[in-house]
Amino acid sequence: xxxxxxxxxLFVSEQAGRAGDxxxxxxxxxxxxxxxxxxxxxxxxxxVTPQGVIAVARAPQxxxxxxxxxxxxxxxxxxVRDPGNAGTLIxxxxxxxxxxxxxxRAAVDPLNPKSxxxxxxxxxxxxxxxxxxxxxxxxxxxxxxxxxxxxxAGARTSMYDSDFRARVAxxxxxxxxxxxxxxxxxxxxxxxxxxxxxxxxxxxGIAGSVLCFEIARQRAMDPPAARAGGLSSPSNRRTExxxx
Length: 244
Prior knowledge:
Layout: E1 7-13, H1 19-28, E2 32-36, H2 38-44, E3 53-57, H3 65-68, E4 73-77, H4 83-95, E5 100-104, H5 113-119, E6 128-132, H6 134-143, E7 147-151, E8 168-172, H7 181-185, E9 189-191, H8 204-221
Parallel strand pairs: 1-2, 4-5, 4-8, 5-6, 7-8, 7-9
Antiparallel strand pairs: 1-3
Helix pairs in contact: 4-5, 4-8
């Protein structure tokens, strides 16, 4: 409710704490409310232990083109399939100041119940674009001044050696195999997270979150640069037609 999500109906358990406050707030916003038994709440939710509040909301609808011009960070989930990872990345992207999160057609649905819960409300705080074609998305982003940066554990360029202060589209691949050949071919360059410990890679939800906050850290140190177009990379920058 605080994020301005379009709620259609709100169900509150008879045993839910602060149910009175919730109901009064919902009534004040013109949201239809129902106090339901524990049995009814259990039938409405797919969670093992429902929290006692269930809302029916209209799915946010938007497009990448609507946000590409004003955004300076866009996170693209190319083939992220785990709903928990997807929700975590929505939450981290929102917290790091991303202007949009893009789910390609090969990724999990951001409206999967587990994704919604893992996002912890961030689904309604950052624009989420669904069912986007990866090639079309990178074309739109590059045309509006974004550099297309991929995350890969074996990349030669460390995230600490990369300048993320200008417009960046961070492309994240599948949990098991990373970015596909097509996804890799669309990148300007790849970055890795330095890991001095005995670990080969990180969970994509964690890796994407770390990268989001490295981008946010650099911009906090020098915020004016984040508004500039384009990004200089120490490696292979591509032109719009894909040539080095």
